[in-house]
Amino acid sequence: MKVTVVSRSGREIIKGGIQLNDSATVSDLQEAIHARTKKYYPSRQRLTLPLNPGSKDKPTVLNSKTSLCDYCDAKKDNLTVVFKDLGPQVSYQILFFWEYVGPLVIYPLFYYLPVYKFLGYKEERVIRPVQTYAMYYWCFHYFKRIMETFFIHRFSHATSPISNVFRNCAYYWSFGAFIAYYVNHPLYTPVSDLQMKIGFGFGIICQVSNLYCHLLLRNLRSPSGNGGYQIPYGFLFNIVTCANYTTEIYQWLGFNIATQTVAGYVFLVVAASIMSNWALAKHRRLRRLFDGKEGRPKYPRRWVILPPFL
Ligand SMILES: NC(=O)c1ccc[n+]([C@@H]2O[C@H](COP(=O)([O-])OP(=O)(O)OC[C@H]3O[C@@H](n4cnc5c(N)ncnc54)[C@H](OP(=O)(O)O)[C@@H]3O)[C@@H](O)[C@H]2O)c1
Questions:
Q1: Where in this chain does the record put each 3-oxo-5-alpha-steroid 4-dehydrogenase C-terminal domain (predicted)?
Q2: Residue ID of nearest Cα to ligand 1 atom 29
Q3: Where are the chain's structural domains?
């Protein structure tokens, strides 16, 4: 079979095309493109079927595990695919590691080092119990996330564009510094003892629940990450599609009840709105995949992320 690889503007990427045997898969084609171009390793390549001129449809993305013949016209033994360079890639583990290690390191700097003296505060800094608990709570959260990244999550995509590392690090690192600055500030006013205990107690329950949600999601896939998207069941997933995001939002609420800073609440609102958008997309995807037609199960009625509002 001959495969012609063109750019979106129609320019031939591999001069003369690529000759492959009839049983070749999309993955074999990606390896062949890599062998001819070196720069474009498989995870950098996005291959789609060409669209008819003027078509507004979304192009079909070729699945690496599928046989190329499945995308061919029955009568033809040649195929044209459209190539897009996704740019340099990093693994999801590397992406998540860098975005979480920032807040894990930055926050304790504000607690342990004489940052405020350096910034011009002359008085002796008295560390309140709530500031100490907040530092442990914060570090536990990001340490847990790094551990989950390496030992629990089973990602369906191997890599992400390297530009996401800079964008995500900017988000997590700057919010980490912003919150740490205010919670550890020498002029910080602590909340009452009872409020602190309620906040941290509730937050810890939510962090443990969040870990349990991630274990339930993990069991939906095989260790290789195969299995696609399944209907999550059990615990809070029986009532809400993205129970992992629900518990994540509530654990930040717990932190904010205990520490009470504007910076912390701003982060809560931004994080909740980001996760709500993602949750809506995930909810729609599961409803589309499990539509109850042609033998497929029907997605049960559930809240998206924050019952009883959404
Ligand atoms: N504070 C914040 O701003 C913020 C923002 C986002 C996330 N977080 C935290 O980070 C955690 C991880 O975030 P995430 O966005 O990566 O979570 P996620 O996509 O909801 O899920 C985590 C893992 O479970 C898999 N998964 C999800 N739904 C599945 C389904 N129906 N069937 C099979 N597998 C499924 C995902 O696979 P895929 O690889 O296919 O996605 C991913 O590997 C969150 O749960 C939350 O605790 C915090």
A1: 159-309
A2: 229
A3: 2-87, 90-289
Pick the closest to residue 34 from 49, 14, 20 (CA basis). Answer: 14
Q: Each residue's pLDDT tens digit in the chain (310 positions)?
A: 889 999 988 888 888 889 888 888 999 999 999 999 888 999 899 999 988 877 888 888 998 888 888 888 766 678 899 999 999 999 999 999 999 999 999 999 999 999 999 999 988 889 999 999 999 999 999 999 999 999 999 988 778 999 999 999 999 999 999 999 999 999 999 999 999 999 999 999 999 999 999 999 999 998 877 778 999 999 999 999 999 999 999 999 999 999 999 999 999 999 999 999 999 999 999 999 998 888 899 999 999 998 888 8
Four-way CATH pick for 2-87: 3.10.20.90, 3.90.1150.30, 3.30.43.10, 3.90.1150.10:
3.10.20.90
Calculate how far, in angstroms, residue 158's C-alpha sits from the geometric centre of ligand 1.
Answer: 14
The residue among 265, 280, 148 whose CA lies nearest residue 212 is 148
What per-residue string of b and e applies to 143-159 under the rule 16 or more CB within 10 Å gives b? ebbbebbeeebeeeeeb
The residue whose CA has the least distance to atom 22 of ligand 1 is 153
What's the gap in Å between 298 CA and the centre of ligand 1? 22
Give per-residue burial for 208-226: e unless 16+ CB within 10 Å, then b. Answer: ebbbbbbebbeeebeeeee
Residue to mutate (ligand 1; options 143, 153, 212, 215; most atoms within 8 A of CB): 153
How far does residue 125's CA lie from ligand 1's centre (Å)? 39
Q: Which atom of ligand 1 is the closest one to the Cα of 270?
A: 3
Whether the model pTM is above 0.85? yes
